[in-house]
Amino acid sequence: MSTEDLQPKDTSPEFSKRRVVLFGKDTDSIIKGFFGCTATVAIVVLFLITLFLIKEGSGFVGQYQTSLKQYRLSGLEYVDILKERREDHTALMQYLSDIKAEWINLLKKEGLTQQAIFKKVMSPESKAVFLGYSRTSSDLRRFIKDKMDAAIEIRDQQITNDNLQETLNNYAKKITEVEDYSFKLSEEDRAEFILKLKEKVRAQSFDADKLETSKGLIEGLKSGVALDTKSREIYLSLLRDEFLATENRIQPVIFEKSILKVTNEQQRYFEILNTLEADMKAILLKSDSIELDNNNLESRMERFKELNALFFTSIPEHKTQIKEWDQNAAVPLSKSLSSFLTGKDWITASDQQDWYGILPLLCGSLIISFVALCIAVPLGVGAAIYTNQISSPLEQNLIKPYIEFISAVPSVVIGFFGVVVLGEAMRGLSQLEFLAWVPFFPIQERLNTLTAGCLLALMAIPTIYTLAEDAINNIPKHLKEASLAIGATPLQTTFRVIVPSALSGIISAIMLGFGRVIGETMVVLLCAGNRIKIPEFSDGLGVFFQPVHTMTGIIAQEMGEVVRGSVHYRALFMVGIVLFIASLIINVSAQYVVKKYNKMDS
Amino acid sequence: MNVNFDIQGKQAEPSKPPKPVIKTKNLDFAYGDSQALFNISMDIFKKEVTAFIGPSGCGKSTLLRCFNRMNDLIDIAQIKSGSIRISDIDIYNKDVDVIELRKHVGMVFQKSNPFPKSIYENIAYGMRIQGVKNRSELDETVESSLRGAALWDEVKDRLNKSALGLSGGQQQRLCIARALAVKPKIILMDEPCSALDPVATAKVEELIHKLKKHYTIVVVTHNMQQAARVSDRTAFFYLGRLVEYETTEQIFMNPKNSKTEAYVSGRFG
Amino acid sequence: MKRYFHKELTELKNKLILLGEKSHEVVHLSIEGLLENNIEKVNEAYGMDDYVDVLEMEISHACIRYMSLRGPVSSDLRLLVVALKASKDFERIADEAHSIAQKSYRLLTTEGSLKNALNLSEMGTLACQLVNDSISCFVEEDIDKAFLILKKDHEIDAINQKHFDTLSNEASRDEMSDTARFNTMLISKSIERIGDHAKNIAGEVIFLLNGDQ
Fold it and tell me: How far apart are CA B28 and CA A533, in angstroms?
């Protein structure tokens, strides 16, 4: 019986009609469509974000070029060239006073009394040298200050003019709009109109007749009547008055003329330089008479003289540079981009020129990432190898969730911890007597590269750990068995078979950890010290104890206070683009590594 | 009537009586609470191919893995009673060096598992972990092992290419060569051909036949034809027990046990 | 690719050929002994049968062993089946020759010599040739020769029929004793059977080479 039930019925086959749910589609294709849509939305959104980033950033090049043009036209650049000598001189002065301070310290150590020291250091000969040296440049300083003020004035005038011009343009636009009969008052216009009328009434600049109309008009406007011919006339006249008033305030800057205020007196400058040289030489001669009584100090003194000699030799070059400076030299567009990418200064809101050079930020980001990775890679990868290969299941169950838990700590909390605990602790540690032998201890800054690096390492460890552990876990068990069956010890198996096989995964884990570190904001903002300066690599390892600023940090810090559309605003977007490209390169290369090794595996 | 009667067609019986190398006695083996092997006693003879057959889960692989203590990797696995002696040494004695045991008793797995390294490094690995650094010694071992696994002519021109670029059968023979490189006396094979196509399987079988001259080989297989083709003796396992262990001819032509008969003739279950 | 166990097949084949040759020898000896009145040859033929039987046993054992251990198919399997059947046929040929030898012995001992050879000589030569041909068509895998054997067998049948007619004749009764006549008839019949077996072998060779009956 039962077998007969199973016999196929002799009806038309089921497959003759397709199953349809909606609009001729079956369930499968509807679900497929849904997921396709979500994927498309995600891609489109990401694309738009990228587009926005590039759009906002790209304006930077033009604006920065304008800014650089003004820098040159207004003579600020000229002044900056002048300033170079002054700064060199200041550095030399600093060097000299360092020698003096060291001398005093030495004498103190020798057990001399305050007065004896004073006598020695403030002896007529040394006084002449130390004080005389700083006095040599007073003329130079005064001269440069004057020139700088002149240049800043020109530049400020130009900026004011630009702003006024913009207002003027706005008025002109408004007037043409109002002249059109179809114009309707918006709420904003209405309020402005009323305000202006009131001002006029208060100033009593209308004749009686007009005054009455105005008062009526104010009431009318308040209750919201439309513009009629008469009131339009009034509105237009008001606008035109404003236009003219603004136009009058513009005092056009003629750079060629006004620059003379800056560039004149070149001869005098040269004379000042010559006197400076002569004075300095005279003082240096005198310096031989100081009895330093110490080899180290004397050699430093010699070095000081060498540096001075260098200073003197650079003066002729400096002179030609000044002579050859050309106000009208063109500023190409590429100059703007290259000075962004290679600029060593990031100076904003200064009374002189603003500089947007990404190098200090890039260096900061890279050096912090380097420190973080140096700490996070051994710890993360080591922990991954340990948990996956060596530890007992119990340890595994403890360690794994715990490390993954670290990634759940909000970065601001970690940053806070860094400021309050780690930074303090490190400074405290560095001040301990018995650790004084460690180079660069005691450290100057509580918040520095190392602090931020340590904390970032803490944040990168879970990423690196999880991915590396996955990579190791994905190595087929039979490889381990094969190695053991040949007679390898478990440790040999781990380090000769498992880890090399998982290397691609581990490398990509490290790269993604790097991506995480370079994109991290809160911790670096709080703990990196935020000094915008290229770290002094000449300090050797001391470079890791210097405060730095990072690309992410600067965006977070400054984005809140910039004027939308300004050069500064766009500069921050450019930093964002650089960051974006950096992350992109890291991710793509991580994928490349994985793909390359996977190809070998299959 | 002095007709010469000695034209014996059958395979000549071994002139000497076979010598057992692996002696298993009353072995009880368990994974935690579930016992996998019950009272196994069998001798495996020198320079013979012994095949283990039986349905899945009958314990044949478990027994095989007992021979080189691969079961040590599983925490809950333990021998409850009985002993395994290889060359008269109890391999589960505390003094036994497992590493040396595994060099003595090589193993080839079901899935070919070359390391993601070059062919050369795959073979040399076993030597390298023993600390051999001498290049010429390594070269020699690599060549002899590859020749031993009948793979030399196929790969001699690409020793430095990745082993993963070889075909499945070549990979499996590479694994055999890798096992040979540490100069074992016994080779265990856990379903060495189950993932291979017939041609590669035939090559591996040929290799097993060839290796028989120098090595004692134990093969676990699901393929009864294969057991019949390559082995000298066959053991049939069922539910953790050794049902019948006899010469292959006996097992396939005239088994004594009705279960064996049913299994080899495909009337099982 | 040739596998290591394929040489077992070759051995089997060789053994089958050996069996064929042995049975051919038995036939040859027994008939020759009869015709030449050579009792020694007859005795020798009489004794060889045991060896042929052993050989036949061995072949069938090897066939079964190969079938159960090596899993042969197609031409290998046909070869085994053919070997099984052909060895049986050769064994039967040897049996018939054995019985010819027996009859001949009796004839030669009671009568002294064969009085009327009839066409036995021609018949014997034909039978020997058939057996020989059946072996060589197997060895040389010559299907035409196999078909030729099928035809030649009819000649033997015809001669046998003639012998029957002659010996059942009144005239022959005067010439030979009854025993001699019956024995001669049985010998003739045995030779005819040998031809039949040779024909069977030829049929089997055709099956081996063609793959169909």
Answer: 74
